[in-house]
Amino acid sequence: MLEIRGSIIAIVITDGTAGAQPGFNGGEKCRGIRRVVVVVLVRGSDQGDYACAGKWKGALKFFDQIARFLRLKRVKIVFSFLKPLALSLTAVFLLIGCVSAKPERSVETFRVMTFNIHHGVGIDGKLDLQRIADLIKEEKADLVALQEVDKGIERSNKLDVGAELGRMTGMSCVFSNNYSFAGGEYGNAILSRFKVESRDHRLLPKTDSPEQRGWLKAVVNVNGKKLSFWNTHIDHRRDDTERLQAIEKFTAWVKEEKLPVIFCGDFNDLPGSRTHQKLKEHFDDTWEKAGQGAGYTIPVKNPKRRIDYILVSHGAPIEPVSTWVPKTEASDHLPVVAEFRWKK
Questions:
Q1: Averages of pLDDT over each 10 residues, the chain, 344 residues
Q2: Strand partners, 91
Q3: CATH of 109-342, one of 3.40.50.300, 3.40.50.720, 3.30.70.600, 3.60.10.10
Q4: Boundaries of every domain in the chain
């Protein structure tokens, strides 16, 4: 309940457009806005009574910037100046449904996130697992594939990073050690809100690289139906030899799989590359099915490349409802989130 004092200087009314693309992606525009209201109130008796923006001139400039932004979204803006502009600003209330809007969560759907967490260090150079956990909770992810996960390594305060994120989010954690590093372990992890019924971990072929790569699998029970959830992080070098060798393994393993597969990871290659084309022989790229725009995930500021993917095995009885890239500075990658439902 909002008690309004003073006069309404501006009201923004939406056209009721539904289906906003959640979050931002490399400066792309949202496709729609749901129930957006911006109300600016004036006339405060106390010169120190500023709820949001200090002096009224600064507040009006701030509002004008928002108005310009919202016009890009085909929003109708109605102005009603009822008092002289000399009146002091009392409050500015902004209720905007586009900035990181997400589709309404259906009880029949579940959400998957893939996120290269850079061992918990953001682009500010700070180790901060809480902001990663907060992002996972904000996105309401049910299954999370994490890459670059430390366990017992000095640079991450010798924390078991996967287990710690599991504790912070209330999810179970499955960790795989790909190789020993700096006195600890380094690999991938899976977080799950669902029961984990089994797990598997295998090392991938290595060609003259100091880093051993791996593949992690967890079989989970999603609302009474079993799902094979895969996670990997493959070679980053320009020469794609090692990546293609890894794809050969994935191809053999998916042919053996009896369950539908969601395959997440940092694949270190672009759409249209040989790596991507080989993957698409057996998997659907969810961004191509349900994403809007380019889906760029790196670099974090002004992203220009899509190398992080959520894939689904061909013929799987699940389909992506929507896919988006949330904004965060918690890592040197942006995460990808997809919402899925079982086909009827």
A1: 40 38 38 40 39 41 50 36 37 36 66 98 97 98 98 96 98 96 95 98 94 97 96 97 98 98 98 98 98 95 97 97 97 98 92
A2: 41
A3: 3.60.10.10
A4: 7-95, 109-342
Query: Exposure of 57 by Cβ count < 10 A (0-12 exposed, 13-18 middle, 19+ buried)?
Result: exposed
- The whole-angstrom separation of Cα 230 and Cα 309 is 11
Whether 212 and 206 have beta carbons less than 8 Å apart is answered as: yes
Is residue 343 exposed (0-12), middle (13-18) or buried (19+ Cβ within 10 Å)?
A: exposed
C-alpha–C-alpha distance, residues 116 and 297, integer Å:
10
Closest listed residue to residue 78, CA positions, set 9, 3, 7:
9
* Crossing angle of helices 161-169 and 129-138, rounded to 10°: 40
Q: How many angstroms from the chain centroid is the CA of residue 184?
A: 28
The H-assigned helical ranges of 112-156 are 129-138
DSSP, residue by residue, 251-264: HHHHHH--S-EEEE
Q: Please tell me whether the peptide bond between 326 and the residue prior to it is cis, using omega within 30 degrees of 0.
A: no
Grouping H, G, I as helix, E, B as strand and the rest as coil, residue 204 is coil
Q: Where on the phi/psi map is residue 160: left (φ > 0), alpha (ψ -120 to 50), or beta?
A: beta
CA distance 112 to 336: 8
Distances (CA, A) of 326 to 21, 157, 191, 240, 337: 11, 27, 18, 28, 8
Contacts of 45 (CB under 8 A, 6+ apart): none
- Sequence-distant (6+) residues with CB within 8 A of 35 are 14, 16, 95, 97
State pTM to two decimals.
Answer: 0.72
Question: 136 and 113 in contact (C-beta within 8 Å)?
Answer: yes
E strand segments, the chain: 7-13, 37-42, 76-79, 89-95, 109-116, 143-151, 172-181, 184-192, 195-203, 214-222, 225-233, 261-266, 283-285, 308-313, 318-324, 336-342
